[in-house]
Amino acid sequence: MHKEASTVKELSSSVQTSANLKNRPRRLRSSATLRSMVRETRLQVEKLIYPLFIVEGKNVTNPVGAMPGIAQQSIDVALSEIDALSQEGVQSVILFGIPSQKDSNGSGAWQEDGIVQKATREIKKRFPHLVVIADTCLCEYTDHGHCGVIDGERILNDPSLELLAKAAVSQAAAGADVIAPSDMMDGRVGAIRVALDAAGFSEVPILAYSAKFASAFSGPFREAADSAPKFGDRNTYQMDPANGREAIKEILLDIEEGADMVMIKPALPYLDIIARAREITNLPIAAYNVSGEYSMIKAAAANGWIDERRTVLETLTGIVRAGADLVITYHARDVARWLR
Question: Is the pLDDT of residue 45 over 80?
Fold first, then answer.
């Protein structure tokens, strides 16, 4: 009986091994060419959007200490960088303006000679093919650093909508191809859509920062955009990082109000939100690979702890794999060169 049991065990083991041999995923990993043929997710330079921080003046380059390789730039300097970007294959930029003067209402956001408006005109004049996305918010323009009108230390929602709509129309009039409201006020997509249509810009699409979280990962951006709030924080209008269902609600509301594209910001801690958004909408989805995500990789690479190129490509591939069609990233120029 012992011999029979042993024979049965050996036969069972042999059959199991034979059955497993029919399914060997490694077969499709045996060479670089084969791996490339069956690769499911591919980074494309055309899908990358490069952020630019524009300041007044000429020949101005102010390096951002927390973001190696990134600087505030005057329009003339930015044009030179865009020339290089264009040659490298990057086809879109998103503009953040830092005005020389700020006030309580952020009036520089909608002035005809505002910094983003001037930059947009010059960029479109020289690079008409380039897609210019205008970040539409008040925080860079207000002396208090918040994204809306304030009353004491309260951020007022509805009075902010009119100002955001004025900024959007002004940006569209300057030639912006896409309006991207990032303020997170309730109803701002609808208000901007109505204002754009009434001003004759019904063809200008809206890329809504639909699920923008009150995230620690956005810290270095405050330095780059000179937009740190002078009091309190942004927790009453940006989203609680713990809330996934609410993020889907925000996305659906923006779609209902007329958003043509939606965005999740930041990207890496919210890959689940990107994936869930992909399930509920066929609209293009953007993800913002934010300043903190960028700076962590730069710091680790500078210390020799990681391979920067491999880490960046893996990071952005993961964002696209989760469901993002477009990625706003400070790595865009490097990635463009690496993917040549």
Answer: yes
